[in-house]
């Protein structure tokens, strides 16, 4: 099973350190299936809204990862990811992955999941499509801190991998503090693309805030590059 570069990078950022891993908005389920082939010790939960996709996925999982002693190491949930049944697994360590959906939806899902499960030990591994500034703003509001962040380039598209939890200690920033490298041309291209986007759409106060923040970041990266 060949994963896309983006999914492979998400896979590489998943340690064998969880009791439950939730592949939310899983669609084809490739990422969760990869984790099963890796023999991670966690139970893998596949979550999506579309029954037909999940029926097909279930058949494939039964074929490739059949039950042992009547039990599978995976479950399939036809469910809105906002409603993850985490309360069934108190005192367990959870990794919730949300990838391949918009930043606004990702933000909404995390807000609902954290509000419904205030005492759970949850890490979130996120790789949204667009609107990362708004997503990061929401994560900061919810008190989530940074474990790791990274820029991913795939088919000339840019993504941000954002790994956060309440237990982490590093503050999360609105534009991403540790993922930018002034010497990487693709990072500068991504930043210029963001600035161009907000230049075109900045009519509201909030979008101006984003534009100013990304411009300041570009200046500081270029300044760093000139000095070194
Ligand atoms: C483009 S696929 C992403 C697949 C995979 N996660 C990836 O990154 O390649 C988006 C999937 O999200 C699912 N989805 C959208 N909103 C959802 C929600 N609220 N709860 C669960 N699944 C959702 C859709 O049904 C669709 O299968």
TrEMBL record:
Q: Which SUPFAM superfamilies match?
A: S-adenosyl-L-methionine-dependent methyltransferases
Q: Name one Pfam family in it.
A: Methyltransf_18
Which InterPro entries does the UniProt record give?
SAM-dependent_MTases_sf, UCP028234
Q: Please report the name of this protein according to its UniProt entry.
A: SAM-dependent methyltransferase
- Species in which this protein is naturally found: Pseudoalteromonas tunicata D2
Query: What lineage is on file?
Result: Bacteria, Pseudomonadati, Pseudomonadota, Gammaproteobacteria, Alteromonadales
